[in-house]
């Protein structure tokens, strides 16, 4: 029997990607604070993804008791330029500054994915992984940056842009998984779900 799948993320983009490949799941978000101790980007996203999954799992266990025949998927994406992590913009001025730094250059996007897979007896298996994609951004004028910021598209996205929207006009190319930049390396997630026998 297939396990119940829970996506521990409120991201509409991650929801859309999982739906796109036919995964049936429930979406849950934890309100608990997330702090990381790692220093390397790949380790940071793995730590945050695992924390999100564990927070949601503990919330569900507090409500319903022992978790069985369930897998919880946590994910976290960061944008890194010159070793500095660019989170979501605080305001439009911050978004403008981020994009001014990104334009005409290359940067890295890391997404961490964590799976908490519970068997019939409630025993948990943890799988954690991070995917890196390099993104090349075309040069942008100040006017182009301001016009993009005015769309409000940057405001809920790490790095201040969404590769799948209007900003596609400024993407010269990528090296790696496109969907990783959107927010979820969906092929990896799907294949991993198959391996832990959720699709069989």
TrEMBL record:
Matching Gene3D superfamilies, A to Z?
3.90.950.10
Alphabetized, the UniProt keywords read: Cytoplasm, Hydrolase, Nucleotide metabolism
Q: Coiled-coil stretches, from where to where? A: none
A GO BP term here is: nucleotide metabolic process
Gene Ontology CC, one term = cytoplasm
Mind telling me which residues the site (Important for substrate specificity) is annotated on? Answer: 13, 77, 164
Q: Which reactions does this protein catalyse?
A: UTP + H2O = UMP + diphosphate + H(+); dTTP + H2O = dTMP + diphosphate + H(+)
Q: Where is the active site?
A: 76 (proton acceptor)
EC numbers for this chain: 3.6.1.9
What class does this enzyme belong to in the EC scheme? hydrolase
Entry cofactors: a divalent metal cation
Q: Where does the protein end up?
A: Cytoplasm
Q: What is its main location?
A: cytoplasm
Q: A GO molecular-function term, please?
A: UTP diphosphatase activity
What role is this protein assigned? Nucleoside triphosphate pyrophosphatase that hydrolyzes dTTP and UTP. May have a dual role in cell division arrest and in preventing the incorporation of modified nucleotides into cellular nucleic acids.
Q: What NCBIfam families has UniProt attached to this entry?
A: maf
Which family is it part of?
Belongs to the Maf family. YhdE subfamily.
Designated name of the protein:
dTTP/UTP pyrophosphatase
Record the organism.
[Ruminococcus] lactaris
